[in-house]
Design brief:
Strand content: under 5%
Order of helices and strands: HHHHHHHHHHHHHHHHHHHHH
Shape: globular
Number of helices: 21
Distance between the termini: 42 Å
């Protein structure tokens, strides 16, 4: 009976993942259907299914999405883009670097999906004015969103999931990952400048037009902006201190969101419309599908096999997780990948008495940066491709991968050296 249950759970899991990868059905629908089937066939009961859902991850996402939804109409993101263009004096290559840096910084404190949704439309406007191809800018912004998001607890969904599952704080992520992420971002921007140095040139008259833009005109609601920035700053401070305050990150994010709602008298229905509910249900479905695997012992079996493969040695285990998660994230969305890896790493700790911290950092770095490898590797990539298509620019899988995969391997190689130097 246990063997039959394990086989059924594996079949449900594989079908769910194959359909997600094939994109023949919306990933939220298939994840929830997979979860429901797990319950219907008795792999996991409804009460147990609710317990395996990580509500801290969901609450953190809801809070931050609500805050960003209230901030968006103020025009602050358009202001930042125009300001960057003027600081670059209309030079396309310099502007590419500045927009990429802005994207990386914003992605560290907002989630990277929200960041690209805000930056990309402005990028198209600026590149049209300059008369240059938007493709290099979009590629740099995709990379920077995933790189910047890796540096903090709240920047990328995989980190939110890891932090919640392990009890890691905002400061833990910054202290352990920000140093290598800065190096990776610099190396990536140097590569982009070299790759596109010939094709990005603007006419002097166009540069003058850029310099004539008034960035302050982008600010549509200064009062709302002041209130929003104050609450956002306090929320980020809350993330920094949440370990000492013994508060979960979801509590901090939701507190910030509802304080901002109270200060702005924003209609809750309008503010909550900014929440990406399909993403939240996608997470919920995955938590239950993976919880079913864990319940019938599949995760523990895989952990035991991994221990045999690496001889229980921390060094090869760390690098195996780094490279496996990086390459896999290029072809499978990193959210379901991390949902599967978290209980696996926990099981490794129970079996082998290992120091798990290097494994958690290798999973974060591999999953977040590996998502840069292909156009389907991370949610931000898919969103940018969709926005590009709406603006008449089709980015093919092959075209994206030709540039992205080698740069992704470079970033993971830098992380390999960093992990070896700092933890092993």
């Amino acid at each position: 009976m246990p063997e039959i249950q394990a086989a059924v759970a594996i079949i449900i899991f594989l079908i769910t993942y194959v359909v997600i990868i094939a994109e023949k059905m919306h990933r939220t629908v298939i994840a929830m259907l997979g979860a429901i089937v797990m319950i219907l066939v008795g792999i996991i009961g409804q009460e147990a299914a609710v317990k395996v859902v990580d509500f801290n991850t969901l609450g953190l996402l809801i809070g931050m999405m609500t805050i960003v939804g209230i901030i968006r109409p103020t025009g602050v993101f358009e202001y930042l883009a125009v300001k960057a263009a003027k600081l670059a004096r209309g030079e396309p290559l310099t502007l590419l670097v500045l927009l990429a840096v802005i994207t990386a910084v914003l992605s560290a404190f907002l989630d990277n999906v929200t960041t690209v949704l805000l930056i990309v439309p402005v990028t198209f406007s600026l590149t049209r004015t300059l008369g240059v191809s938007p493709l290099p800018f979009l590629m740099a912004e995709v990379f920077s969103s995933n790189i910047g998001g890796t540096a903090t607890l709240i920047g990328d969904p995989p980190n939110i999931m890891i932090g919640s599952a392990v009890g890691l704080t905002f400061n833990d992520f910054v202290w352990n990952l920000a140093p290598v992420i800065i190096v990776v971002e610099i190396a990536t921007l140097i590569a982009f400048r070299w790759l596109y140095r010939q094709g990005l040139r603007a006419d002097p008259a166009v540069k003058a037009e850029i310099m004539a833009l008034d960035e302050l005109a982008a600010i549509k609601d200064p009062v709302l902006l002041r209130k929003s920035l104050l609450v956002l700053a306090l929320t980020i401070l809350g993330f920094v201190l949440h370990g000492r305050l013994q508060l979960e990150s979801a509590t901090v994010a939701l507190t910030g969101a509802f304080i901002l709602l109270a200060l702005t008298s924003e209609e809750p229905a309008k503010a909550l419309a900014a929440v990406e509910w399909p993403v939240l249900f996608f997470f919920t479905g995955l938590f239950i599908v993976v919880g079913g695997l864990e319940r019938v012992g599949v995760i523990r079996w895989v952990a035991e096999e991994s221990m045999h493969l690496t001889g229980g040695n921390l060094v090869p285990m760390t690098f195996l997780i780094l490279w496996l998660s990086a390459v896999a994230s290029g072809f499978v969305d990193n959210i379901p990948l991390v949902a599967t890896m978290i209980p696996l790493i926990k099981a490794l700790g129970q079996i082998g008495n290992l120091d798990l911290m290097p494994l958690w950092w290798s999973l974060s770095l591999g999953a977040c940066l590996g998502g840069n490898g292909t156009i389907i590797g991370a949610s931000a990539n898919v969103i940018v491709a969709g926005l590009a298509e709406k603006n008449g620019l089709v980015i093919t899988f092959k075209e994206f991968m030709k540039v992205a995969f080698p740069l992704m391997l470079l970033s993971v190689a830098i992380c390999h050296l960093y992990l070896w130097w700092r933890y092993l």
